[in-house]
Amino acid sequence: MDWKPVALTTSPLDQSWYEASARARLAGLLDAETFHEFIGPEQRMMSPHLPLFDLPRAFDDGMIVGRGRLDGQDVLVAAQEGRFMGGAFGEIHGAKLVGLLRAALVVKPAAVLILFDTGGVRLQEANAGETAIAEIMRAITHVRAAGIPVIGLIGGRAGCYGGGGLIAGTCARLVISEGGRLSVSGPEVIETNRGAEEFDSRDRALVWRTMGGKHRRLLGAADAFADDTIGAFRAAACAAIPAAPAFDLATLEAEQARLESRLDRFGDARDATEIWGRLGINDPAAVPGLTTGAFDALLAGLPEAPHDAR
Amino acid sequence: MTLAEILDSLFPQGHAVTVTDGLIAGEGPFGGDGASGAGRLAVIGIDGDIPLGIEGACHLAGRVLDVVRAGGGTPILVLIDSDSQRMSRRDELLGLNEYLAHLAKGLLLADAKGHPTLGLLYGHSAAGAFIATALATRVLAALPGAHPSVMDLPSVARVTKLPLERLEAMARSTSVFAPGLDNMVRTGAVQAVLDPDEPLGPQVAALIADAPAADTRDALGRDRGGRPLAHDIAARVVREATGA
């Protein structure tokens, strides 16, 4: 038998986005050795509020912001660390992203990239987190109005929930992977408020079908579906930048028409598979099992026109 | 104040604001000399502490875009007494995050296109509905008795696994997590509390006239002690990014 050695260290581009830390995602996403962090962990700008709750803190408060290059273009980047407090927005966490977006108006990068990995507002700092989300959404529209694309990338363990889902809806382009989830109320929140009959959070297939990457792409809530590798997200981010729509009345009128049409067409649907069937997919039940290649081929064969309405 | 009292105080000459299924929409005469009828104020909002779902957000966004399309610089007042976002499998299935973000973007676009936006909290509001409406306006005001929250303390107790009594004690000394209008004022999210005993029209007109061009909520939060670090952190990122 001719055994081959197993490569335990793969190229950063082949690493799983879902499994990687926020810093590893940034390192692989950007051109090698080009990332420069603002308010790095050595500055130890930690939450002033978590000690009140006897909770551990992180030197970066779960938010990494900086500049780098993507395929030779200058970009500003923000990455949430979902493994620290579920990537939740607290005072410092949110303010770092607010500052990055304000800086974009001055330095005029080719794009701002936001690597979402969040459960939403950090309840221990709820008022500060919620206000920060409002500041971020306003800042994103300013950046977009200045002609700078803001691109969201969603594929982390915490998904993109709560206020993070609203921020994502403000971005010009969204890339999502199979493991990414995009929603406002998470399954557990719905179950807690409305009961397991409304949403059984333990039904993982239901969660993925309702909030997961394939459904969001098919619905038009995301613009690209990426494999769960850093390289795939990098390629999708590069493709998204030149495709970003302007932030103006025409775009929002088109989005209004798109969202009204969705209500008309799918408002009575009870499950994602019904929506997929109405989109013209012959075998909706097979969608969750499709590889990225087969899923992209399916998308290409659908009658839905691509849109710029976001 | 009730919605009817607010509208009477805002529009002593009468108005064309209606409420359908808890959704407020319409307009009334505002400012100007009245005789020419030049000044109008557009109104949208949520009444009756109802949750904001996909249909409601889509409807309100459509009314906001109507105002922008008509041009003319008509200000938009957003009146809010809402629950949180509607929590349901169906709303999430159909992309509630897009509908809420679309409404917020509509208000932000309106403001950028010369339609000053002003929020007025007069009841409850929470979470996604609060972000998509009141917090998406340029200036957010409130009436005494309004009670915005991100999450009520019993729910915070459940999530943080801290005893409710301890949270209640902590809430008295720190405003960053506790529900209530005073705490939202301290964080800078709510800029001003209006006087219900004086006519609201002139108070609203003054807030619109004095509205800051930039987002000053983090500076307010620092000055009022509710968000001690947000402004300085954001400014520091800008300095490091621009090399200033």
Q: Count of helices of chain B?
A: 11
What characteristic shape of chain A results from the CA principal axes? globular
Major beta sheet, strand line-up of chain A: 1-2-3-4-5-6-7
In total, the number of strands of chain A is 7
Beta-sheet strand percentage of chain B? Answer: 15-25%
Unreliable stretches of chain B (pLDDT < 50, length at least 5) are 33-37
Outline the secondary-structure elements.
The complex is a heterodimer of chains A (310) and B (244).
Chain A: H1 22-29, E1 36-38, E2 63-70, E3 73-80, H2 91-107, E4 111-116, H3 126-145, E5 150-154, H4 163-168, E6 173-177, H5 187-194, H6 204-211, H7 213-219, E7 224-226, H8 230-240, H9 249-266, H10 272-278, H11 292-301
Parallel strand pairs in A: 3-4, 4-5, 5-6, 6-7
Antiparallel strand pairs in A: 1-2, 2-3
Chain B: H1 3-10, E1 16-20, E2 23-29, E3 40-52, H2 54-70, E4 76-85, H3 89-93, H4 96-112, E5 117-121, E6 124-126, H5 127-132, E7 139-142, E8 147-149, H6 153-160, H7 164-173, H8 181-186, E9 192-193, H9 200-209, H10 217-223, H11 230-242
Parallel strand pairs in B: 3-4, 4-5, 5-7, 6-8, 7-9
Antiparallel strand pairs in B: 1-2, 2-3
Which features would summarize this protein structure in a list?
heterodimer; A: 310 residues; alpha/beta; seven-stranded mixed β-sheet; 11 helices; 12% strand; globular; B: 244 residues; two-stranded parallel sheet; 9 strands; 21% strand
Describe the model.
Chain A is 39% helix and 12% strand. Chain A is built from eleven helices and seven strands. Chain A has helices spanning 22-29, 91-107, 126-145, 163-168, 187-194, 204-211, 213-219, 230-240, 249-266, 272-278, 292-301; strands at residues 36-38, 63-70, 73-80, 111-116, 150-154, 173-177, 224-226. Chain A has a seven-stranded mixed sheet with strand order 1-2-3-4-5-6-7, with helices on both faces. In chain A, helix 2 packs parallel to helix 3 (126-145) and helix 6 (204-211) packs parallel to helix 7. The model of chain B is unreliable at 33-37 (pLDDT under 50). Helix content of chain B is 44%, strand content 21%. Chain B has a seven-stranded mixed sheet with strand order 1-2-3-4-5-7-9. At the A-B interface, helix 2, helix 3, helix 4, helix 5 and helix 7 of A face helix 2, helix 3, helix 4, helix 5 and helix 6 of B.
